[in-house]
Amino acid sequence: MRxxxxxxxxxxxxxxxxxxxxxxxMGIGGVLVLLVGSWLTGVNLFSLVGMGGSSAPAxxxxxxxxxxxxxxxxxxxxxxxxxxxxxxxxxRLGARYQQTKVVVFRDAVQSACGLSESATGxxxxxxxxxxxxxxxxxxxxxxxxxxxxxxxxxxxxAHEVGHHVQNLxxxxxxxxxxxxxxxxxxRVELQADCYAGVWGHDAAQPGxxxxxxxxxxxxxxxEALNAAAAIGDDRLQSQSxxxxxxxxxxxxxxxxxxxxxxxxxxxxxxxxxDTFKN
Length: 278
Description:
By secondary structure, the chain is an alpha/beta fold. It has helices spanning 28-41, 45-48, 69-93, 136-143, 150-169, 181-203, 220-230, 233-241, 254-267; strands at residues 11-14, 102-105, 108-111, 114-117, 123-125, 130-133.
Protein backbone atom coordinates (compact mmCIF):
# COMPACT_ATOMS: atom_id res chain seq x y z
CA MET A 1 0.00 0.00 0.00
CA ARG A 2 1.08 3.56 -0.68
CA UNK A 3 -0.05 6.22 1.73
CA UNK A 4 0.85 9.72 2.90
CA UNK A 5 0.91 10.76 6.59
CA UNK A 6 -1.92 13.11 7.46
CA UNK A 7 -2.63 15.62 10.19
CA UNK A 8 -3.47 13.03 12.83
CA UNK A 9 -7.07 14.26 13.03
CA UNK A 10 -8.52 10.78 12.47
CA UNK A 11 -6.86 9.25 15.53
CA UNK A 12 -7.37 9.85 19.24
CA UNK A 13 -4.26 8.80 21.14
CA UNK A 14 -5.33 7.12 24.38
CA UNK A 15 -2.19 5.06 24.85
CA UNK A 16 -1.20 7.01 27.94
CA UNK A 17 -4.65 7.03 29.46
CA UNK A 18 -5.38 4.68 32.34
CA UNK A 19 -8.74 2.93 32.50
CA UNK A 20 -10.09 2.07 35.93
CA UNK A 21 -12.82 -0.27 37.01
CA UNK A 22 -13.35 -3.62 38.64
CA UNK A 23 -15.47 -6.39 37.25
CA UNK A 24 -16.76 -9.76 38.33
CA UNK A 25 -13.93 -12.30 38.62
CA MET A 26 -14.20 -15.25 36.26
CA GLY A 27 -12.30 -18.47 35.66
CA ILE A 28 -9.85 -18.56 32.80
CA GLY A 29 -12.24 -20.70 30.74
CA GLY A 30 -14.96 -18.07 30.94
CA VAL A 31 -12.50 -15.33 30.08
CA LEU A 32 -11.34 -17.20 26.97
CA VAL A 33 -14.92 -17.70 25.85
CA LEU A 34 -15.58 -13.98 26.18
CA LEU A 35 -12.36 -13.07 24.41
CA VAL A 36 -13.19 -15.23 21.41
CA GLY A 37 -16.81 -14.13 21.44
CA SER A 38 -15.89 -10.46 21.62
CA TRP A 39 -13.61 -10.75 18.60
CA LEU A 40 -16.17 -12.77 16.66
CA THR A 41 -19.03 -10.38 17.34
CA GLY A 42 -17.19 -7.08 17.50
CA VAL A 43 -19.06 -6.40 20.74
CA ASN A 44 -17.47 -6.05 24.17
CA LEU A 45 -19.01 -9.09 25.87
CA PHE A 46 -17.11 -8.31 29.08
CA SER A 47 -19.40 -5.35 29.66
CA LEU A 48 -22.46 -7.59 29.39
CA VAL A 49 -21.38 -9.75 32.33
CA GLY A 50 -20.14 -6.93 34.53
CA MET A 51 -16.48 -7.02 33.57
CA GLY A 52 -16.26 -3.45 32.42
CA GLY A 53 -19.84 -2.21 32.54
CA SER A 54 -20.62 1.48 32.52
CA SER A 55 -21.16 1.35 36.28
CA ALA A 56 -17.46 0.68 36.83
CA PRO A 57 -15.53 3.74 37.95
CA ALA A 58 -13.41 5.20 35.18
CA UNK A 59 -10.26 7.24 35.46
CA UNK A 60 -8.83 9.57 32.87
CA UNK A 61 -5.27 9.85 34.10
CA UNK A 62 -2.89 10.54 31.22
CA UNK A 63 0.64 9.19 31.45
CA UNK A 64 3.58 10.07 29.21
CA UNK A 65 3.62 7.80 26.17
CA UNK A 66 6.78 5.96 25.25
CA UNK A 67 6.53 5.11 21.59
CA UNK A 68 9.02 3.43 19.27
CA UNK A 69 9.59 4.80 15.76
CA UNK A 70 7.78 1.73 14.42
CA UNK A 71 4.75 2.42 16.60
CA UNK A 72 4.71 6.08 15.60
CA UNK A 73 4.72 5.05 11.96
CA UNK A 74 1.83 2.70 12.68
CA UNK A 75 -0.09 5.58 14.27
CA UNK A 76 0.44 7.58 11.08
CA UNK A 77 -0.68 4.59 9.02
CA UNK A 78 -3.90 4.20 11.02
CA UNK A 79 -4.60 7.92 10.66
CA UNK A 80 -3.97 7.88 6.90
CA UNK A 81 -6.12 4.80 6.32
CA UNK A 82 -8.92 6.09 8.54
CA UNK A 83 -8.90 9.44 6.78
CA UNK A 84 -9.09 7.80 3.37
CA UNK A 85 -11.92 5.48 4.39
CA UNK A 86 -13.91 8.39 5.81
CA UNK A 87 -13.30 10.45 2.70
CA UNK A 88 -14.77 7.67 0.58
CA UNK A 89 -17.88 7.36 2.74
CA UNK A 90 -18.29 11.12 2.87
CA UNK A 91 -18.43 11.15 -0.90
CA ARG A 92 -21.02 8.37 -0.91
CA LEU A 93 -23.28 9.53 1.93
CA GLY A 94 -22.79 13.29 1.82
CA ALA A 95 -24.25 15.08 4.84
CA ARG A 96 -25.46 11.77 6.26
CA TYR A 97 -21.90 10.78 7.05
CA GLN A 98 -20.57 11.92 10.43
CA GLN A 99 -16.84 11.91 11.04
CA THR A 100 -15.46 9.57 13.68
CA LYS A 101 -12.04 8.57 15.00
CA VAL A 102 -9.96 5.56 15.87
CA VAL A 103 -9.17 5.58 19.59
CA VAL A 104 -5.78 3.90 19.92
CA PHE A 105 -5.15 2.48 23.39
CA ARG A 106 -2.93 0.11 25.30
CA ASP A 107 -4.04 -2.70 27.58
CA ALA A 108 -7.52 -1.36 28.37
CA VAL A 109 -9.86 1.49 27.53
CA GLN A 110 -13.09 2.93 28.90
CA SER A 111 -15.69 3.64 26.21
CA ALA A 112 -19.41 4.25 26.22
CA CYS A 113 -19.71 0.47 25.83
CA GLY A 114 -17.81 -0.23 29.04
CA LEU A 115 -14.29 -1.17 30.01
CA SER A 116 -12.56 -3.21 27.30
CA GLU A 117 -9.21 -4.96 27.40
CA SER A 118 -6.83 -5.35 24.47
CA ALA A 119 -7.67 -9.05 24.16
CA THR A 120 -11.20 -8.07 23.16
CA GLY A 121 -9.80 -7.08 19.77
CA UNK A 122 -10.73 -4.04 17.65
CA UNK A 123 -14.33 -2.96 18.10
CA UNK A 124 -16.84 -0.26 17.26
CA UNK A 125 -18.91 1.28 20.04
CA UNK A 126 -22.27 2.67 18.86
CA UNK A 127 -22.64 4.54 22.15
CA UNK A 128 -19.90 7.04 21.31
CA UNK A 129 -19.51 6.27 17.59
CA UNK A 130 -15.83 5.45 17.93
CA UNK A 131 -13.57 2.70 16.63
CA UNK A 132 -11.23 1.25 19.27
CA UNK A 133 -7.90 -0.38 18.50
CA UNK A 134 -4.83 -1.60 20.35
CA UNK A 135 -1.96 -1.61 17.84
CA UNK A 136 -0.79 -4.89 19.33
CA UNK A 137 -3.69 -6.57 17.55
CA UNK A 138 -1.86 -6.20 14.26
CA UNK A 139 0.88 -8.44 15.64
CA UNK A 140 -1.81 -10.96 16.61
CA UNK A 141 -3.25 -10.73 13.12
CA UNK A 142 0.10 -11.77 11.69
CA UNK A 143 1.23 -14.33 14.27
CA UNK A 144 -2.00 -15.93 15.51
CA UNK A 145 -4.22 -15.60 12.46
CA UNK A 146 -1.38 -15.79 9.89
CA UNK A 147 -2.76 -12.79 8.03
CA UNK A 148 0.18 -10.43 7.45
CA UNK A 149 0.28 -7.29 5.34
CA UNK A 150 -0.67 -3.64 5.54
CA UNK A 151 -3.89 -4.09 3.57
CA UNK A 152 -4.94 -6.85 5.98
CA UNK A 153 -4.56 -4.25 8.73
CA UNK A 154 -6.45 -1.67 6.69
CA UNK A 155 -9.24 -4.21 6.14
CA UNK A 156 -9.72 -4.48 9.90
CA UNK A 157 -10.12 -0.71 10.21
CA ALA A 158 -12.42 -0.53 7.19
CA HIS A 159 -14.60 -3.30 8.64
CA GLU A 160 -15.06 -1.36 11.89
CA VAL A 161 -15.89 1.84 9.97
CA GLY A 162 -18.44 -0.31 8.14
CA HIS A 163 -20.17 -0.68 11.50
CA HIS A 164 -20.11 3.11 11.86
CA VAL A 165 -21.87 3.41 8.50
CA GLN A 166 -24.42 0.85 9.70
CA ASN A 167 -24.93 2.90 12.85
CA LEU A 168 -25.56 6.03 10.79
CA UNK A 169 -27.97 4.29 8.42
CA UNK A 170 -29.86 2.34 11.10
CA UNK A 171 -28.75 -1.15 10.09
CA UNK A 172 -27.04 -1.82 13.38
CA UNK A 173 -30.39 -1.44 15.19
CA UNK A 174 -32.32 -3.88 13.01
CA UNK A 175 -34.42 -6.54 14.67
CA UNK A 176 -33.13 -10.13 14.77
CA UNK A 177 -33.40 -11.70 11.33
CA UNK A 178 -36.32 -14.15 11.39
CA UNK A 179 -36.13 -13.97 15.17
CA UNK A 180 -32.56 -15.33 15.16
CA UNK A 181 -30.05 -13.02 16.84
CA UNK A 182 -27.05 -15.01 15.59
CA UNK A 183 -28.30 -14.83 12.02
CA UNK A 184 -28.76 -11.09 12.39
CA UNK A 185 -25.20 -10.78 13.72
CA UNK A 186 -23.82 -12.73 10.75
CA ARG A 187 -25.62 -10.51 8.27
CA VAL A 188 -24.46 -7.33 10.03
CA GLU A 189 -20.86 -8.52 10.05
CA LEU A 190 -20.90 -9.68 6.43
CA GLN A 191 -22.25 -6.31 5.39
CA ALA A 192 -19.37 -4.63 7.24
CA ASP A 193 -17.01 -6.89 5.27
CA CYS A 194 -18.69 -5.82 2.04
CA TYR A 195 -18.42 -2.16 3.04
CA ALA A 196 -14.71 -2.71 3.69
CA GLY A 197 -14.46 -4.03 0.14
CA VAL A 198 -16.28 -0.97 -1.19
CA TRP A 199 -13.52 1.22 0.22
CA GLY A 200 -10.94 -1.26 -1.12
CA HIS A 201 -12.43 -0.72 -4.58
CA ASP A 202 -11.73 3.00 -4.24
CA ALA A 203 -8.20 2.42 -2.96
CA ALA A 204 -7.46 0.16 -5.93
CA GLN A 205 -7.97 2.95 -8.44
CA PRO A 206 -4.69 4.00 -10.11
CA GLY A 207 -3.15 7.42 -9.59
CA UNK A 208 -4.51 8.02 -6.09
CA UNK A 209 -1.09 8.11 -4.42
CA UNK A 210 -0.12 11.16 -6.47
CA UNK A 211 -2.97 13.01 -4.76
CA UNK A 212 -1.99 11.91 -1.27
CA UNK A 213 -4.62 9.16 -1.12
CA UNK A 214 -4.17 5.51 -0.19
CA UNK A 215 -3.39 3.37 -3.23
CA UNK A 216 -3.09 -0.39 -3.36
CA UNK A 217 -0.10 -2.27 -4.70
CA UNK A 218 -0.16 -5.66 -6.44
CA UNK A 219 -0.84 -8.40 -3.92
CA UNK A 220 -2.68 -6.16 -1.46
CA UNK A 221 -6.13 -7.54 -2.27
CA UNK A 222 -4.92 -11.06 -1.55
CA GLU A 223 -3.79 -9.89 1.91
CA ALA A 224 -7.29 -8.73 2.78
CA LEU A 225 -8.91 -11.86 1.35
CA ASN A 226 -6.54 -13.97 3.43
CA ALA A 227 -7.44 -11.98 6.55
CA ALA A 228 -11.17 -12.37 5.88
CA ALA A 229 -10.73 -16.13 5.48
CA ALA A 230 -8.55 -16.40 8.58
CA ILE A 231 -11.25 -15.01 10.87
CA GLY A 232 -14.23 -16.93 9.53
CA ASP A 233 -16.34 -18.57 12.23
CA ASP A 234 -15.81 -22.07 10.89
CA ARG A 235 -12.03 -21.73 10.90
CA LEU A 236 -11.92 -20.18 14.38
CA GLN A 237 -14.28 -22.81 15.78
CA SER A 238 -12.28 -25.61 14.23
CA GLN A 239 -9.05 -24.23 15.64
CA SER A 240 -10.43 -23.70 19.15
CA UNK A 241 -12.76 -26.70 19.60
CA UNK A 242 -12.13 -29.04 16.69
CA UNK A 243 -15.79 -28.70 15.70
CA UNK A 244 -17.75 -26.45 13.35
CA UNK A 245 -21.15 -25.32 14.66
CA UNK A 246 -22.97 -23.20 12.04
CA UNK A 247 -25.80 -22.37 14.45
CA UNK A 248 -23.22 -20.59 16.63
CA UNK A 249 -21.85 -18.43 13.83
CA UNK A 250 -21.79 -14.68 14.53
CA UNK A 251 -19.60 -13.37 11.69
CA UNK A 252 -20.06 -15.92 8.92
CA UNK A 253 -17.88 -18.64 7.46
CA UNK A 254 -14.53 -17.98 5.84
CA UNK A 255 -16.13 -18.47 2.41
CA UNK A 256 -18.93 -16.01 3.23
CA UNK A 257 -16.57 -13.34 4.54
CA UNK A 258 -14.33 -13.64 1.49
CA UNK A 259 -17.32 -13.57 -0.87
CA UNK A 260 -18.87 -10.43 0.62
CA UNK A 261 -15.56 -8.57 0.83
CA UNK A 262 -14.91 -9.53 -2.78
CA UNK A 263 -18.37 -8.31 -3.80
CA UNK A 264 -17.70 -4.86 -2.35
CA UNK A 265 -14.22 -4.84 -3.83
CA UNK A 266 -15.38 -5.73 -7.33
CA UNK A 267 -18.50 -3.56 -7.49
CA UNK A 268 -17.54 -0.52 -5.41
CA UNK A 269 -21.27 -0.25 -4.77
CA UNK A 270 -22.61 -0.05 -1.21
CA UNK A 271 -26.03 -0.93 -2.62
CA UNK A 272 -24.66 -4.37 -3.52
CA UNK A 273 -23.99 -5.04 0.18
CA ASP A 274 -27.55 -5.84 1.27
CA THR A 275 -26.86 -9.01 3.22
CA PHE A 276 -30.38 -8.95 4.66
CA LYS A 277 -32.00 -10.04 1.41
CA ASN A 278 -33.32 -13.60 1.49
